[in-house]
Specification:
homodimer
Amino acid sequence: MKRLFVIKIGGNVIDHSQALKRFLSDIAAITEQKIIVHGGGKIATNMSAKLGIETRMVDGRRITDANTLQVVTMVYGGLINKTIVAGLQALGCNALGMTGADAGIIKAHKREHPTLDYGFVGDIDHVETAPLRLLLDHGITPVIAPLTSTATNDSTTVGATMLNTNADTMASMLASALAAEYAGYEVGLLYCFEKQGVLAAIDDEASVIPRITFQEYQILKERGVIAKGMLPKMENAFAALRQGVSSVRICHSEQIIEATQDMTTVGSCLSLE
Amino acid sequence: MKRLFVIKIGGNVIDHSQALKRFLSDIAAITEQKIIVHGGGKIATNMSAKLGIETRMVDGRRITDANTLQVVTMVYGGLINKTIVAGLQALGCNALGMTGADAGIIKAHKREHPTLDYGFVGDIDHVETAPLRLLLDHGITPVIAPLTSTATNDSTTVGATMLNTNADTMASMLASALAAEYAGYEVGLLYCFEKQGVLAAIDDEASVIPRITFQEYQILKERGVIAKGMLPKMENAFAALRQGVSSVRICHSEQIIEATQDMTTVGSCLSLE
């Protein structure tokens, strides 16, 4: 069966030019169809600081007021997205940068929360796979920034507003939608970042947990072995498996090629049972 | 014969939310295939100022050092491009934002000048029409930011750098390439901005010159009637006509629908003879 990979790359990798170079040349070497989803929070935080805009995070999520929305639209949709696209193009990989708004691939709504105003933060309602398939079938690699949009009646905008959207969730939902609708393909989801995988001891890169079932995850979470920012990533990962994604791997950005070639010996491999 | 329009929209229109709203709803109402090319220099200048980056212009062209390149990549490729895309999507127009780097649609090189270093400014070598046709043929409207890229050996970048590229020239070269390769289509080029057309008296909006041949343009240029920023626009316009573009119109952004329906009574219509 043919394989398609959704590859999420974290902001810490993007922020280091040598790590990014390695990542891009590895991506360009993957012969299967692939979709890249990138973060970039740290760069957005730096740009906000330069512009005198305070960054407020709650449980790892950025509170996105109008000024912050402008920053993330510029940094994610412009700076980071085009750096990745131009880098891949120079390596012969026909990349095309997008946000969830472009070609209407992701429909979202502004998050509503009973006690907290996240501001311009989007939760995903629906992924439209047809434009992605059109691109993939013509040898084009979509590179997707963590932004969506929603129609709005706000008189100060132009009929729509962009929404800041979590990149891990976006990767999970893209992989799930493609798994459901992409007949004849196995969809693999890779979360790539600056660590070797899910670690049993946070400071010990050798403590990678090679296989984690959902049941084991519950135990590791209770024990506090898996905690903080890794929790939503794990939830997103298991959600993708429940939606029909064939394999989910959390691994180092330098292990992408091995992870796509052999899904068992690199990083942490997640399964439902 | 079927028609395809390349529509350049100037930065002053983008900068005014009411004018932009009107422009977007007009674009969404055009039933023919269309490609939008946008500017945004004024917004880039404002963002540069906020970041403490000095803006240097020579003959209306922005000197683009590394910091300025970062700003235009953010502002053109991110902020403005996604504002237009999200706005069109909310109006039911299936827009997809791109730069010249995306899907490899425009190949450029860094400008070399005997006495002046423009910095990261790109001159266009080639337009690859196949990805644009793929999108257009599937009902997708490309929205193109005035940025290109080139491969580089610079060790500080990731194998490529973005290049700041003139939007008028980009629109002209896109229209020319499409006219040459898009069999069965008439390609029209529209330059839309905040004035009624090419004016005989710069402060009199009623002084629109309705038809201008290349010969008449030479005379108007000698007399100083057409001057400054209008000169490169005119050169780009006549270049497109020489390359087989069927019609070129310079008009107000509020006249787009009339201009696409009837190419003779709105704004300034250019012809080679």
